[in-house]
Amino acid sequence: MTTLTARRPRIDSTNGVWLALGMTLIIGGILVATDGGSLFGQNSTVSLLQRAAGLGIVAVGQTFAILAGSLDLSVAYVISLTSLIAAETMAGSDGRVLPAILAVVAVSGAIGLVNGLLITKLRINAFIATLGVGLLIKGYLEQGYAGPAGSVPVSFQHLGYDRVGPVPVAFLLFIGVAAVAWVVINRSRFGHHLIATGGDLDVARLSGVRTDWVLIRTHVICSLCAGIAGLYLASRLGAGAPRVGAEGGYDLESIAAVVLGGTVLAGGKGGVAGTVGGVLLLAVIDGIFNQLAVDPFFKQVVRGVVIVAAVAIYAMRLRRKVVRKAAA
Amino acid sequence: MHDVGKSFYGVSVLSNVDIDVYPGEVHAVVGENGAGKSTLMKIASGVHQPDSGSLRIAGEPVVLHNPREAQAAGVGIIHQEFNLLPERTVAENVFLGREPTRRGLVDRRAMRARTAELLASVGAETVRPTDRVGQLGVAQQQVVEIVKALSLDARILIMDEPTAALADHEVELLYALVRRLQARGIGILYVSHRLAEVFDLSSRITVLKDGRRVVTVDTADATPEALVRHMVGRELASYYPPKAGAPGAALVTLAGAGNGRLRPIDLELRSGEVLGVGGLQGSGRSALARALFGVESFTAGQMTLDGKPVRPRSPRQAVRAGIAYVTEDRKGEGLALSQSVLDNALLASRAATPRWFGGGARTTSVRALLAAVEVHAAGVDQEVRYLSGGNQQKVVLARWLAMAPRVLLFDEPTRGIDVGAKAAIHELIRDLADKGAAVLMISSELPELLGMSDRIVVMRDGALAGELPGDASEEAVLSLATGTPHEVPA
Questions:
Q1: Which InterPro entries would you find in this protein's record (chain A) (predicted)?
Q2: How far is residue A179's CA from residue A159's CA, in Å, rounded to a whole number?
Q3: A87 with A152: CB under 8 angstroms?
Q4: Which residue from A137, B349, B368, B440 puts its CA 20 to 30 A from B340's CA?
Q5: Closest CA to B288 of B440, B164, B401
Q6: Full residue range of the structural domain in which residue A136 is found
Q7: Structure letter (DSSP) for residue B314
Q8: Are A81 and A244 within 8 A, CB to CB?
Q9: How far is CA A182 from the centre of its chain?
Q10: Can B2-232 and B241-322+405-490 be said to share one CATH topology?
Q11: What is the rounded distance in angstroms from the CA atom of residue A235 to the CA atom of residue A157?
Q12: How close does chain B come to A188, measured CA to CA in Å?
C-alpha cells in the first residue's frame, strides 16, 4: 500500500508554474501570431532559451539559498566579477580556458564561503550580509574597471553561441545544472538537511543536522552557480563586463524566478523543478513582448503583476489548505 | 547526572542536581515552571552544556557538546513543542540528520521500510511513512517524535510534558506506548506537571524546586499532597476556588449559530458563571471560541450580547463589544515574544483607543493590573519570552483586564503552566466570574474542567454533544466527548 501512495503525484505550487507557463505559451502564441509574427520560430525560440540560460543557472543557485531559508543578493556582482576573471585569465588564449574556469570556481566559491560564514558565524541576517558582500564587490569593480576587459578565445565562445538543433548549448548547461541540483536537493542527505534547515532551523539543529555547515555549503553552491553564469556571459560577450550582472538584474530576477516556481521565500518548501518553470515563464513573457514590440516599461509592469499575482495565488491556496486541515 | 549546575546570564537556574535513571525505569521529574526541569533535560540531551558536574551513561563519563553527540550516546528527547517539519514526510522527519544512503544518495526505500517497522513496533500502523507530518493529528505527531527517538536506538528517552497537547483518550495511547518502551529496557525521564500521570507511570519521582533537587522518592511511598508540598513549598488546601452560587442572567446567547466548522449551536453564557467546554481536540471547541471572538465568525444563526444581536466579524469588533479571548497558543497568538511585558499588556488598549498623548494614565493602570495579577518579572521592560508560562499567561490576562471585558473566552488557560501558577490563574478566572463576567473556559484537562466549571458543555464533531452540571463525573464528560455509552468510558 505504501509504495503505491508514495508514487502518487502531488499537485502543489511547484507544478502550478508549469500550468501558468503552458497557458502563457498558448495565449502568447496566439497574440504574436495575430500580430503577424511567430513565437515558436527558430530565431525567437533560440533567443528565448538563450536568455533563460543565464538567469536559469543563477536561479538554480538561488533556489538552494532560498530553500535553506536564506537568500543571496550578491549574485549579480559575482557574475560581473567572474565574467571579468574568466576573460582576463583567458586573454584570448585557448590554453588558458581551464585555468580561467578554475579561477572562477575558486573565487566564486570563496565569496560563497564568506557569505555563509557571515550568516552563520557572525549571525548577520542573510539579506544584509550578502548585500554587503555584493556592494563590496561592486566597489572593487567600479574602481578597477571602466568597461569591458579581457577577451575570450573563439573556442570558449562555443558555449555562448553553439546549439544543438534549436537548443543553445548554454540552455543544455542550465538544464544540466538544474538536473544535478534536483538530485542533490531531492535525493542527497545534504538536500534533506537543506530543506529541514529552511523549514525550521531549531528542529533541524535539534535533530542533529549541522545547520551552520548546511548554510555555508548552500551559499558556496549559490555563488558557484553565479560563477558559472559569469563564465557563460563572458563567453557570450567575448569579454568580461563589470556591469553585466547588475544591469541584467540577476539578483532580484533570480529570486523572482524561484518564488514564481513555488518555492516559499521563507524556505523549507519548494524545489528546483519549479524554478526551471519560473525561469522559462519569465523568458517567455520577455519573448512575447519582444515579438509584439511592446514598450519596455510596460513589460516591467507586466512582470511585476505576474510575480505578485503568482505569490498571491500560492498564498490563497495555502490558506485554503490550512482551513481544510483545521476543519478535518 | 551528577552535581549538575548551569547558569544563564549570571542567573543560576540549576545547581548541584543529581539524578539517575535505570534501564526499564520511568523516572518522573516534577517541579514548577522555572524549577529547572527543562534546563536539566536540555543538558541531558546535549542542547546546553553544564557549567559544573558530570554526566555518565552506563557508567561511562560522557561530554555532550551538541544534540548529535547526545543521540550517538543513546539519549533521545521528545520535546514539549514538537520538533517536526510539517512539510516533510514521516520518514523524512524520523531520519532527519541520519538519512540512510546508498551509493551516495538517500536510500528512500530503506528509509520508508525502516520507518514502517518502527511504527509497527510501537503499534502505530495507522501512520504511514509517506504521510506528510502536517496532515497528522497531534497524537500521531507525537508518535512520530517517539519513533524518531527510537530510530536512534535510544537507551534513555526524555519526555518533556508529553501529554500537554493530547486529549484525554490520546493520553491512554501514550501510556501504553510508554509501558511498551519500558518493557524494552529503555530508561525514561518523564517530565510532567500532571501528577496523576506521574503516579500512573513512574517508579521514582524527583522533585525540583528553584534549580535544586528537593527529593527523590519511590512512587509507591509518595502521595500527591506531599509532592505538591515539595514543589511549591506549601500545601494547596484546595486545588480549585469555590464555585458560583447562582448564575446571573444570560449575557451571550447563541441560537443556531454555526459556520463551516460548527454545526448550529444553541448556547447561553451567563453573567457570573464559568461555563466549561469539554471535548476532544478538533471537536470544535476552539472554533466556537474563535467564532465568538470574530476570528472565523459565525455564518449562520443568531448571536446576541445583552439581548442585542451582534456578530463580530473581526477580533477588533469583538473587543469593542466587550469580549476577550485568551488563546490556547500563547506563544504563537497570545504574545509578541520579543516585546516587553508592558508592551504586551498594553497591546489591546493601544489598539482599541490609540492616542498620541495622555497614554501615561493608561500605562499606570496597566502596571497596576500587572501587579494585581502578580506577574513575576525582572521588570515591566523585560522581554516576555523570558517569563515562565504562568507569568506569560498573567500578562495576557492583564492585557484583557485593561479592556474591562464582560465576556472572557479562555482556551486551555493553564496549558504548560505549573501547579502554583495554575491555582493563581484559576483564582483569577473565578474572581472575574464573581465580578459578573461571563466566562467560557475550554479545557482538555478533566480535573480542571470539573473543578472550575459551574456548568459544562461537551462538544463533538463541531456540535454540542450535551450539557452537564458542574459536579459531573469524568466518565460522563468522556462518554459525551467520544460518543461512547456511559458504561464503557474510552
A1: ABC_transp_permease (IPR001851)
A2: 18
A3: yes
A4: B440
A5: B440
A6: 14-23+40-327
A7: S
A8: no
A9: 13
A10: yes
A11: 5
A12: 5
According to DSSP, the residues that pair with B276 across neighbouring strands are B441, B456
Quick one: CATH architecture of B241-322+405-490?
A: 3-Layer(aba) Sandwich (3.40)
Contact A59, A204 (CB under 8 A): no
A148, A237 in Cβ contact below 8 A? yes
Q: Which residue in chain A has the smallest CA separation from B104?
A: A188
Coil vs helix vs strand at B44: helix
How far is residue B241's CA from residue B250's CA, in Å, rounded to a whole number?
23
When divided into structural domains, chain A yields a total of: 1
Question: Residues of A with CB below 8 A from B86's CB?
Answer: 199
What beta strand segments (E) does B150-203 contain?
156-160, 187-191
B264 backbone dihedrals φ, ψ, rounded to 5°:
-50, 130
A239 located within any domain: yes
d(CA B325, CA A240): 62
Closest partner residue to B85 (CB to CB) among A1, A191, A196 is A196
Nearest C-alpha in A relative to B47: A206
Q: How many other CB atoms are there within 10 angstroms of residue B365's CB atom?
A: 14
The residues spanned by each domain of chain B are: 2-232, 241-322+405-490, 338-397
Going by the DSSP 8-state scheme, the letter that residue B111 receives in this structure is H
This prediction has a pTM of 0.74
* Nearest of A300, A245, A231, A256 to residue A135 by alpha carbon: A245
Q: State residue B307 phi and psi, 5-degree precision.
A: 85, -10
Each of the 490 residues of chain B gets a pLDDT tens digit; together they read: 544 545 444 345 577 778 888 888 899 988 765 677 778 888 888 888 887 777 888 777 888 888 778 888 888 888 777 788 988 999 999 998 888 888 889 999 999 999 999 898 887 878 899 999 988 887 888 889 888 888 877 888 888 888 777 777 778 888 888 888 888 888 898 988 777 888 888 989 988 877 778 888 888 888 877 887 777 665 444 568 888 777 788 899 999 998 888 899 999 999 999 999 998 777 889 999 999 999 988 998 999 998 899 888 999 999 989 999 999 888 888 888 888 888 888 888 888 776 665 567 778 888 888 888 888 888 888 888 888 888 899 999 999 988 889 999 999 998 877 777 888 899 999 999 998 999 999 998 778 888 899 999 999 888 899 999 988 887 788 778 877 665 443 3
Q: In CATH, which superfamily holds the domain spanning B2-232? A: P-loop containing nucleotide triphosphate hydrolases (3.40.50.300)
Interface test with B, best of A207, A212, A214, A324 (most B CBs within 10 A): A207
Domain presence at residue A241: yes
A54 in a structural domain: yes
Q: Which residues contact B258 (CB under 8 A, 6 or more apart)?
A: B264, B265, B298, B299, B300, B301, B462
Answer whether A40's CB lies under 8 Å from A291's CB. Answer: no
Of B85, B106, B130, the CB nearest to A189: B106
Record the cell numbers describing residue B251, joined without a space. 449575557
* Minimum CA–CA partner of B94 in chain A: A207
Q: Residue A7 CB: number of other CB atoms within 10 A?
A: 8
Q: Using the structure block, give the residue that is written with the C-alpha cell 543536522.
A: A209
